Amino acid sequence: xxxxxxxxxxxxxxxxxxxxxxxxxxPYPPNKGDKLxxxxxxxxxxxxxxxxxxxxYDDPKDxxxxxxxxxxxxxxxxxxxxxxxxxxxxxxxxxxxQPFSTAFFxxxxxxxxxxxxxxxxxxxxxxxxxxSMAQYVEATSNIPKILDMVDVxxxxxxxxxxxxxxxxxxxxxxEARRLAAYExxxxxxxxxxxxxxxxEAELLRSKAPIGEIHVLENFLDVxxxxxxxxxxxxxxxxWQPYVIFSGSMDYFPNMDAAEYFYRKVFPLIRRELxxxxxxxxxxxxxxxxxxxxxxxxxLITGSVPDIKPYLCGAAAxxxxxRIARGVQNKILEALGCGIPVVSTAAAAAALTRNLRxxxxxxxxxxxxxxxxxxxxxxGPDIVSKDLRRTLKKHYDNLDLPSQLDxxxxxxxxxxxxxx
Length: 419
What we know:
This protein has 19 helices and 14 strands. By secondary structure, the chain is α/β, with parallel strands linked by helices. The N terminus is likely disordered.
């Protein structure tokens, strides 16, 4: 059964807005890329505004942590994603012309809850995180709506198709076309659409020329990643020297990257430096990933309470992504810990030029292995403090909290008159 949060007692700030925040996965705990971004948005908005949160969860542990949301929300509503019905709806969507990623996140009970709260409470803004959740407020026209699309998912499905064999290649390409058409409609119907990089914005404008599109980069609190304040366990020290790949390991682009690195790149590194280990750190390792752990040189952590010690203990972070859209938070987190990053061009492309210059970019297995070996033998070309200093300056200059607040507040006077 879905769980509803308690009504909080947050005192309203002067000029505070009432915001309905609809998210495809609960922002807490912020233990993966999309949740890091949605949690930052929730936490930032809660400082000045009243937020009601509606979201799904798929991990029972997320439900156990839901009480933490009370300090950020006036109320929250969590509902479990049904393993059976979500997949059934996704399959059925092929017959009805819907994107199956949208059908996957449809729930009658979620729709009823959101419809009810819209009827009983007056909101100043609706913020939707992920295009798959926009369906719940498509019919709402009397409240300004902002969509944080994060990245252009339709292009990601096209990349899946290019990496798959028939019939999956046909299915993923079919989804890419349907989702691209839907994304274009959403850009037109929402007051503002937000993505995480200039590259995503340029791509989305090419697909959806009508509508307002803004860029809001992913946030990272660099101070929280200071390696001087992050102790390493004896277990982590016993693994050294190692390179690390982090991320949710049931996510296909991450699975593809980890297997590619293990099979094509890691043997070349081990030929030069036999004692090197490969740590794969992330929740829900797929069977194909878990099987790599049969190699004594590969360590599979599964879910970890905090990724930072695992990053700080590494000689380098590897990001061998062949399928990538948007900013890879794993890159930002590694740079925040001051460790060198070796990345494919596909994963590095979303970064701004000043951050991209901090990476070692390599595409072929030979180039990738040579870059990792160079770091392991000679140490990083850029010292840890320089990596962190550049990242810190980047975020200080961006002032992302002010950018988010401006997005929520802009044209408020005109919208109030129109309503």
